[in-house]
Design a protein that fits this description.
Number of helices: 6
Oligomer: single chain
Number of domains: 4
Strand order of the largest sheet: 7-4-6-5-9-8
CATH topology of the largest domain: Molybdenum Cofactor Biosythetic Enzyme, Chain A
CATH superfamily of the largest domain: MoaB/Mog-like domain
Largest sheet: 6 strands, mixed
CATH class of the largest domain: Alpha Beta
Shape: elongated
Radius of gyration: 31 Å
Length: 407
């Protein structure tokens, strides 16, 4: 049965997805497991940090009243190593040996670096300080954060530096947005699993690994990735099963108008059709629908179109489910290499970009064929060529999405 389709623009499709009622979930996890997770609540300092005056060097702590008339011999009345305290007052011409990072006594005004001192022969209880210093070499309590200061804002992606900061306040757990649960169905009787023996008329399943890695790269959790033949009942059975436990089900292939493309029928029978036709290339038959409160994103089986569709439609949803905006930075860029083709529809191309003299410059990255795989490794952006009966002039301004990558 031929399914009637109503084409909408890329922008209209993105707006429809943005209007979906998606509520991010949160969870509390160990700090040690929180790298690259998205913070769900503002993290504030529980107390002043550092919470005591701290020595910046190995040396000797002395009173302000004794900071004059050098060189001078002092009596060493104790030693403070990192992690220890000192509960004795300093008297006239008394100092205490102190280590880097150690607690500085309240009545000490300065730490003289070890390099500015000399031992006194036959008097280990004494030290000769040769000269004073302008700096006090003491880190004040609360010099970096006061109690209640914002440490890391909600929506931030935690990294090793941020986790170190959290650990510095003694926290062992942190509340983050739960990873969106995503299932993947790759359809196609022509598909072979990697590792199988090549066969005439068959191709290896490259889109399944592509989508799985893109989901993981963008903060999702792939709960299951399956490959099925072009069979309507098999498709429906797996859609129903995976909808029950996932936030998103991504399908790949079977979304066009061929005799064995069954996603269009599944979308027609679903609870809510969002869109099933786009005024763009590649991926014009990209489809989105809701069934049993689960979003199904049906991407094109062509690798280039699948890759493009993921970043234009799936990544923004994954980001919303993690409490943040899309990580694809949208900019206006200059077309730095002529693209000679005319377009009946808007065309989104895989490209590379440079940033020169305050301007993003983009160009096509190799092939613009929707089935091409060779340029996916090196693609760093997507850019749109508007529909036109004339080629877009060189150096035109084009809408561009800079793609996110983990460092």
């Amino acid at each position: 049965m031929l399914i009637r389709r109503h084409p909408i623009t890329l922008e209209e499709a993105q707006a429809k997805l943005a209007q979906l009622d998606l509520t991010p979930k949160t969870e509390t996890i160990p700090v040690a497991q929180a790298n690259h997770r998205i913070l769900a609540q503002d993290l504030k300092a529980a107390y002043d940090y550092p919470n005591f005056r701290r020595s910046g060097y190995d040396g000797y702590a002395l009173r302000a009243a004794d900071d004059h008339d050098f060189p001078k011999i002092f009596h060493v009345v104790g030693e403070i190593q990192a992690g220890a305290t000192f509960d004795r007052s300093l008297g006239e011409n008394e100092v205490v040996r102190i280590m880097t990072g150690a607690f500085v006594p309240d009545d000490a005004a300065k730490v003289i670096m070890l390099e500015q001192t000399r031992e006194v022969p036959d008097h280990p209880e004494q030290i000769k300080i040769m000269t004073t210093q302008k700096k006090d070499n003491i880190t004040p309590a609360g010099s970096e954060f006061k109690a209640g200061d914002l440490l890391i804002a909600a929506g931030s992606e935690l990294n090793p530096g941020g986790l170190s900061l959290i650990s510095a306040f003694g926290q062992t757990s942190v509340t983050v947005y739960a990873k969106p649960k995503v299932a993947i169905i790759t359809t196609g009787t022509e598909l072979l699993q990697p590792g199988a023996k090549p066969q005439p008329g068959k191709i290896f399943n490259s889109n399944g690994p592509l989508i799985a890695n893109l989901v993981a790269e963008n903060g999702g959790e792939v709960t299951e990735s399956i490959q099925i033949a072009d069979d309507y009942q098999l498709l429906q059975t797996n859609l129903k099963r995976l909808q029950a436990t996932n936030d998103i089900v991504i399908t790949d292939g079977g979304v066009s108008v061929g005799d064995f493309d069954y996603l269009a029928t599944a979308a027609r029978e679903a609870d809510q059709l969002i869109f099933n036709k786009l005024k763009m290339r590649p991926g014009s038959v990209t489809t989105a629908f809701i069934d049993h409160n689960t979003l199904i994103m049906a991407l094109s089986g062509n690798p280039g179109a699948c890759y493009t569709g993921f970043y234009l439609f799936v990544e923004p949803v994954l980001s919303r489910l993690q409490g943040r905006a899309s990580q694809c930075q949208k900019v206006t860029a200059t077309l730095s290499r002529f693209y000679p083709k005319t377009n009946g529809y808007d065309k989104v191309l895989r490209g590379t970009y440079q940033f020169k003299a305050g301007d993003y410059q983009v160009q096509l990255n190799g092939s613009d064929v929707s089935g091409a795989l060779g340029n996916l490794q090196s693609t760093t952006c997507l850019f749109k060529i508007p529909h036109s009966h004339e080629p877009l002039p060189l150096y035109s301004q084009v809408e561009t999405w800079l793609l996110p990558y983990k460092s």
